Amino acid sequence: MKRQKYCGLLLTVALAGMALSCDQSFDPKGVYEDRLVVYSILSTDRNQQFVRVFSTYDPPGYDPREVGNDRQIRGALVSMQETGSLVQFRDTALARPDTSRYKDSLRLYVGAPFLPQSGKTYRLSVSTPTYGMVTATVTMPSSGTLSVTAGYSAVTVPNSTDPNRLISLHATFSSATRGYLIRMQVDYEVQTDTGWKLERVEIPYLFQGGGFDLTKAVYPTLTRALTHATRVDFVNGGYRAVLNHVILDRHPTRLITFKHIAFYLLQAEANMYDYYSITSGFQDPYSIRLDQPLHANIQGGYGVFGGYTLDSLIFPLPVNFEYNRR
Amino acid sequence: MLLTCIWFVQSLHGQSADVRGVVSDSLTGERIPFANVLIVGTTRGAAANVVGFYLIPNVAPGSYEISVSAVGFGKRVRRVIVPSSGSLEVNFRLPPAAIETEEVVVSAFGRRELTEINTSVHIFDQKDMKLNPVTAQPDVFHSLKIIPGIVSTSDVSSKFYVRGGAGDQNLVVMDGMKIYNPFHALGIFSVFDPDIVRSVEIYTGAFPAGFGGRLSSVVNMMTRDGRADRPFARAHVNFLSSKIQFESPVYSGASVLVNVRKSLFTKTFGRIVSEDVPLTFYDGFFKLTGQTEGGGKYDASVLLTGDALTSSKPDEPNYYWENQSFGFTISGLLSDRLFVSSTTSFSVFKVERDPKNSPFLTPSSSTVKEPGVRATAVYYTDRQDVYQFGFEFSFPNLEYKLVNNLGEPVRLYDISPEASLWIGYQAKYDNVQVSGGLHSEMGQIFLRGVKDYYLQPRIHLSYLFFGNWRGKISYGRFSQNVITVSNEDDVISIFDAWIRVPEYLEPERADHYVIGLEGNITEQLSMNVQTYYKAFNSLVTYNRDKVDTFDPDYVNGKGEAYGVEFSVRYGIPVFDFYGSYALGRTQIDNRGFVFAPRYDRRHHVNMLGVLHPLEGFDVTARWEFGSGFPFTQTIGYFDRLRLSGTLPSPFEYETGEPYAILGPKNSARLPSYHRLDLSVAYRFTITGSFGGSAGIHLLNLYNSKNIFYFDRKTGRRVNMLPFFPTATVSLEY
Q1: What is the per-residue burial (b if ≥16 Cβ within 10 Å, else e) of A196-227?
Q2: Are B213 and B171 in contact (CB under 8 A)?
């Protein structure tokens, strides 16, 4: 009798469990918000600027690659304002170089002629009837300074200079600069079947494991500006290795004339620097974080509105430069 | 320092006649832990320790009856003559209850906790572990999940979370050896076969001074000794694995136990997790036990485990896990009243990921090697107070290798020594029982300087109101120096790497406050209610402001967990019932950004009923309900430009990559979890010593579709165990 009673209790518990428990639906998607996605990076080295305008999307399933067309927005009103001046951007199409995912042409907005000024603040405004208006602001860094403080002889006569000789540069930054990039490049002309062609090659600033093996070369990257000035060194051996690479590997038989050595100082303001760094694995070789956080500075949307200024220091190379092949 | 303590407490020792001895199984010779020893007609008594040793100090000369009882064993009473000085050794050999059926066996969820001072301790023996319906094969950790305050994010995982603590905040110790990854098969099973485990102490909070280095819980496992009376063999097969166990006396007073398991039918995994999981595993346990005069005992234990998840597809990664743990424990009386136990151990854990041709994954590995020594001493005073002290010294070697998001190989390596000392005192004053102690992380003090959180008080007070109704209060402070790292946004993590808390951060630390009330409503019905507050004063959390290499990966956050747990137990010879309800809330505060961690379960109900309709038959039903875990919803996508390439890059030509926009972190909840399991087990004898057991287990009887995880990239929902009938057969000789 007692056993029957407890069997009954067990059964009751089971039935109660079933009654209480009904399968619940579940959707990993939250409430979708249709928003504008805007990208624009202003630069002081060209007189036309671009704004790309997209929208977010909600694929019918869960795979975002189901969406077969680029969610580019046409017909938006895009303008950029700086005290006293307003630049209207025009809707334009460009051929898409990578058609592996989307086949249609690139749609973007061009402002031209428009050369942003160092130190100025620009306000971007994008509005569409469907998505409303989004805005963002960027302050371009003021021009910096760049000077060669040591190793100038290596620039002009690298072969006659100790390979370990450093070519040192001193740079100063604007207060609006969050990140900087100093690059050393060589411009040269090479004779082709159709005439002389200008090419450019970059000089590494570091080599892993000693020596000047270009396969172990490390090139400058965008770096946080912790102070308003810095010093960067390039080593003559690396410079020579690149010149040798050009005349021996890249163009072993053609005529070559080396024209300039150019040092560039790129100053990125905070929005661009932060976005670039976060999307590039925090630019942290020691990080063990595997997430990719969202970074955006578009009010009411996603994307980034950033900018950089570019300053350069150019040294013409002598006509009898050691590496010329005439 | 330990010797000074010993000298100090020994100086307190007066001349008296002590009654002491060991309690063991009359059949196998194995020591019986936690037996109750009472001098009949007095209030004097003692509880045996984990190696079955007891000591009742300062007993007046005369003739007494001493009774001994233990869960699952028949009671024994013996008359003794206590001399006027010195000590009297009285050893007891208790018959298993199966032999003396007239004894009322204390039910699986007996009332032992009521005798403890601690608020949050639970003791499971083999019977408790085997009561739960079996998911393909019996498992120690699955059975622990019935304890209120312990939750698992899935029923296909043995991984557990205690009172709002993260999965790496649980200290798992087996015979004194630390086990860093006690799981098989992506956490579906633990590496501990219930047949080798004698008892498990689970502290869900405010654990005593003898344990440290973790914030949330301690699972302290004691393994069985091999049979010392005769050779014994057991073969077991189930839908997943096969096992052979062998025990035998080897020489005078010594025995050996060998247990080997190997996965057989890997396709069973596919049924369990609704996916093709090409996984194999093995584990082996070896133990040599010897006993010496005066209650002494020594054990040499070896645990070897391995898992391999090897996919035949070239673009799917392979994973490998290994544990190797070796321990030697010696315990016994060092002087009349000083019982000492010391373990020398070496634990190794390795996990490796081989991405093969996977486009999304990179090679990664994590290794922990930890040699260590742990010693505890217990001194019994004249008035039955107990002093405890001990130390632990180890050198954890932690190595983590990975290729990070920048594509750079990273190697983290740390070999800082860990050293801790503790001292404790336990006393009884009429209706009040007190246990207090101080745990100090000396290694951290040497490395990082004196901080108040390295001196960790542990206090337990218990007041007996009437009958066996007790009120209890506990407080403890804890810190943790090693943690696992994984992507906080991962829905499931199958690769947990251990690292030391970086030097620029404070270690993780927490304060536990627990208040409880427990007692018997009727002779058969007991209840226990506890409420806790856990302040996580320091946690290691993502640095949400990280931009570049100048910003640390992690920052110190804070958190809190609080809740109330209620449980009832009902036991009569024909039926046992256990029910529990836990209400909890956990929040993590990452510098002002507050969210619930993904293991924050608000409501949790467990009910277990065991019917014993016939001799040898057990019918068990278990129902579990848990409210949904937090998760982060996807609220859309956009094509994110990376601005990749050499700067200044022509971003206007770039085609972006889909990027999932996430809603507020963990603000949504998965559906509730619920499941009913039913099992019937029968124990039989074929002839003489040859017998065995057979069981049928019906899991998820009404086929509840409990979500395991969803793949954010495809939206595919993977459910937990569907209706799943299994059977087990075990033969013993």
Answers
A1: eeeeeebbbbebeeeebeeeebeebbbbbbee
A2: yes
Contact B216, B120 (CB under 8 A): no
Residue B107: which pLDDT band, with cuts at 50, 70 and 90?
A: very low
Q: H or E element: which one contains A240? A: helix A236-244
Q: How far is B714 from chain A (nearest CA, A)?
A: 5
pLDDT at B710 over 70: yes
Q: Which is more confident, B422 or B720?
A: B422
8 Å CB contact between B557 and B539: yes
Q: Is the peptide bond before A113 cis (omega within 30 degrees of 0)?
A: yes
pLDDT bin (cut points 50, 70, 90) of residue A15 is low
SS3 of A241, please? helix
The partner residues of B663 in beta bridges, in order of sequence, read none
Give the closest-approach CA distance of A320 to chain B in angstroms: 31
Q: What amino acid is encoded at B272 in this protein?
A: I
Q: Give the DSSP H or E segment for A4.
A: helix A2-20
Q: Mutate which of B547, B610, B723 to disrupt the A interface (most A C-beta within 10 Å)?
A: B547
Whether residue B700 contacts residue B679, with contact meaning beta carbons closer than 8 Å, is answered with: no
More confident residue, B3 or B230: B230
Q: What is the DSSP letter of A143?
A: P
Opening angle at CA A269, ends A264 and A274, nearest 5: 110
What are the tokens at B396? 């954890």
pTM of the model: 0.87
Residue B14: strand, helix, or coil: coil
The predicted complex's ipTM stands at 0.88
Phi, psi of B99 (to 5 degrees): -85, -40
CA pair distance B588, B169, nearest whole angstrom: 15
* Alpha carbon distance A262, A203 (integer Å): 10
The overall average pLDDT reported for chain A is 90
Q: How far does A227 lie from chain B, in Å, by closest CA?
A: 13
pLDDT tens-digit series, residues B471-521: 999 999 999 999 988 765 565 667 788 999 998 999 999 999 999 999 989
Residues B6, B282: Cα–Cα separation, whole Å: 43
Helices (H), B69-152: 126-131, 140-144
Tell which A residues from 17 to 76 touch B, by Cβ distance under 8 Å. Answer: 17-18, 20-21, 23-26, 28-35, 37, 39, 41, 43, 45, 50, 52, 54-59, 61-65, 67, 70-71
* SS3 (DSSP) at A1: coil
Cβ neighbours of residue B57 closer than 8 Å, sequence gap 6 or more: B16, B18, B337, B380, B381, B382, B383, B384
Q: Residue B661: its pLDDT value, please?
A: 93
Q: What is the pLDDT of residue A65?
A: 83
